[in-house]
Amino acid sequence: MTFEFSREAKQGMARAGVFHTSHGPIQTPVFAPVGTQATVKAVEQRELVELGASLILANTYHLHLRPGDDLIRDFGGLHGFMAWDGPILTDSGGFQVFSLGGLNKIDEEGVTFRDHLDGSLHRFTPEISIQIQHNLGADVIMAFDECPKPDDRAIVRGAVDRTHAWLTRCVEEHHRSGDLNRQALFGIVQGGIFPEMRAESAEFVCSMDLPGYAIGGLAVGESKPDMYAMIEHTTPLMPEDKPRYLMGVGSPEDLVHGVARGIDIFDCVLPTRVARNGAALTRQGRINMRNLQYATDSEPIEPGCTCYTCTHFSRAYVRHLVKVSEILGHQLLSMHNLHMLLNLMRELRAAILSGTFVEVAGAFLENYQTVRPEDQSTVFPIESV
């Protein structure tokens, strides 16, 4: 198999490793910028390379609808279509299908849903999701799962059962029609905020002996303490010699807490989404660049930051761009926010390798102010894991 994961160091539950893919190695822990429509919004591929992004994510649901996965296949898959030479991960489309709410109908075979753009009827099954991802050609593809509300026991129970049944079908379809040396299929552990269902799901999913495994269904409405507890409960049940991917999580404090609990791969739209709303991520917390206090401020967004934005432009200039809705404002904030997260992950990796992770992570969390103070969980201090 092309897809080998080697662990280089460990401190507590935190791990530093390397995951080898058909488009190159990924040093972990790693944050993957999200390119939903085969582009990371407001950031060029050249800039992603300069930022040091080693993995990006694209969206199966959206790319199936527009421009179509057959067209992307004919361009040589996503790598050829978007001119990206590094590793790519595609989700299964499951989260988007299920988040449509009243536009879908779930049965044991799959999901029928209406296009959120034109109302046309579509059908996703485990087999169809895998076939679409084969056409997209990503290095890591995800099993089709059901992502439920995390705190409704009955709904979570049904979702776990369907996720397991659909995983079996995804594995069968991938072995039937895929290239096992070119695309790694990851299974997804579900179970909401219920420890016994998380344990049951981890046992089933990890029994499939896949190249890697994900934890899904978190950061979808549960509290921070609940999320951290489920990660801490689940990761010890997953193989040590396979990468662990926490889906859809990307705030700075969550990255630190996730790494501390044994997560290797993260992705999230947050850094570019908040940038388009005028927010900057800094080591002191999130700041709103629309605020009047920055109107005449000659300092960079974050003093000491080495990103392109901070080494060239003032807060006053960035605020001006945001206030007049100039596209460059989105670009500069997106680059800064991605730099902040990617650099944080590199620092956490270096700290694990040097045996200083607890000190580095603890210092970051002590200095960082979350959007809501109650989210800065003291229930699970870094030292405990």
Topology:
Blueprint: E1 5-11, E2 14-21, E3 24-28, E4 30-33, H1 45-51, E5 56-58, H2 60-65, H3 69-74, H4 77-82, E6 88-90, H5 94-99, E7 104-106, E8 111-114, E9 121-124, H6 126-136, E10 140-142, H7 153-177, E11 184-189, H8 195-206, E12 212-215, H9 224-234, E13 244-246, H10 252-260, E14 265-268, H11 270-276, E15 279-282, E16 285-288, H12 308-312, H13 315-323, H14 327-354, H15 357-367
Parallel strand pairs: 4-14, 5-6, 6-10, 10-11, 11-12, 12-13, 13-14
Antiparallel strand pairs: 1-2, 2-3, 7-8, 8-9, 15-16
Helix pairs in contact: 6-7, 7-8, 10-14, 10-15, 11-14, 13-14, 14-15
Describe this structure in words.
The chain has 385 residues and is an alpha/beta fold. It has 2 domains: 5-269, TIM Barrel; 275-370, no CATH class. Helices cover 41% and strands 18% of the residues. It is built from 15 helices and 16 strands. It has helices at 45-51, 60-65, 69-74, 77-82, 94-99, 126-136, 153-177, 195-206, 224-234, 252-260, 270-276, 308-312, 315-323, 327-354, 357-367, and strands spanning 5-11, 14-21, 24-28, 30-33, 56-58, 88-90, 104-106, 111-114, 121-124, 140-142, 184-189, 212-215, 244-246, 265-268, 279-282, 285-288. The strands form 4 sheets. It has an 8-stranded parallel sheet with strand order 4-14-13-12-11-10-6-5. Helix 7 (153-177) links the parallel strand 10 and strand 11. Helix 10 runs parallel beside helix 14 and helix 10 (252-260) runs antiparallel to helix 15. The longest helix is centred in the C-terminal third of the chain and has 28 residues, at 327-354. The protein is globular. The model has no long low-confidence stretch (mean pLDDT 94).
